[in-house]
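During the second half of the funding period, the structural biology subgroup turned its attention to how the target accommodates small molecules. The most pressing case was pyridoxal-5'-phosphate, which had performed well in the primary screen but for which no bound structure existed. We therefore specified the complex as follows and requested a full 3D prediction, including the ligand pose.
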Amino acid sequence: MAERAYFDWNATTPMRPEAAAAMAQAMAVPGNPSSVHAEGRAARRLVERAREDVAALIGARGADVFFTASGTEANMLALTPAIETSNEKRPRDRLVISAIEHSSVRAGGRFARDAIADVAVGADGRVNLAALKAALDGAARPLVSIMLANNETGVLQPIAEVAAIVHAANGLLHVDAVQAAGRIPVYIGALGADIVTVSAHKIGGAKGAGALIRSSDDIHIADPLIRGGGQERGMRAGTENVAGIAAFGAAAAAAGSQAGAEAARMQTLRDTLEAGLKAIAPDAVIFAEGAERLPNTTLFSAPGLKAETAVIAFDLEGVAVSSGAACSSGKVQPSHVLAAMGVSPEFARGAVRASLGWSTAESDVERLLNAWRKLATALSKGRRGIAA
Ligand code: PLP
């Protein structure tokens, strides 16, 4: 059995072997992709090949991919009043976001606080479409940002329906697909999204590379975050992270070609895991269990469970899980996602996330369940102790 069982793929994934190999090869290329000599041209080829591969992952064109240093940066770049189309160059007058977005979207990009409207979600973790319509009411040129899959619950959002509503309101739709891309099929055209964020380290690339991908060259951001050199066609100045981008491309190609088989395998393992969690502790709850979810994510709790202590207990048993979002672990505060779903703060405090990936094995699931058995037994003894 492996020394550890890693169940925190939504925080970050191990690098795919294809990505690690591409990264090592790229590091041996000394040139700057902006240089005209042979070394520079070799580096440029790596970047442009990766651009095509990342575009293909979501059915876009390479020319519409802009590399950034993270998913966070891509979200920040997209969320600006200065996102234009050829027909509409006036500033966007409202940003509409859901209550369960990642903190990089919740921060609101470059919109003034009072120009940001929130959309509620239901108890199933899905965006409330009537609330979306209400949030758009009275806006002339809104920008809407709704994620495709939630990082904590894995719940998939009804993006095609959202897109129809947003476009009918003269809006543009940004979709944070950081958790979905590479795990389920994602096609920018089928989603109806105007602009999409993806991140390398969630699909088996290296940490520190992301991309903002538009549906067509009709969409333009007039105020890039980082200005200076003309890299990324003026959308993101700074010499490209060639090795990180090459790894991103290789990871995207591998994730794309294996997506169907990986998703089916992960779903089977995840279902085994959830059945086991409930068989061991019949009062355990899987959040948003009935909703359409990513095949790799489970967020669970049980009465009396404290996520901070559970994560440590699992860790001592050689199992890496997390308490909600990676960015908020370490801070003892209930998840904004569960709060938005109407889960009580006490119960939300016990939420533990286990997320799987392509190398998760049945033995890893067994290991997690063995650790859970110990934890659940201690928990029920504790409860009986208190009751006595
Ligand atoms: N969006 C979502 C839904 C995420 O889960 C994350 C990371 O956890 C991000 C954006 C940020 O991506 P990055 O870590 O590349 O900044």
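Two results from this model are relevant to the next phase. The radius of gyration is 21 Å. The CA atoms of residues 67 and 211 lie 4 Å apart.
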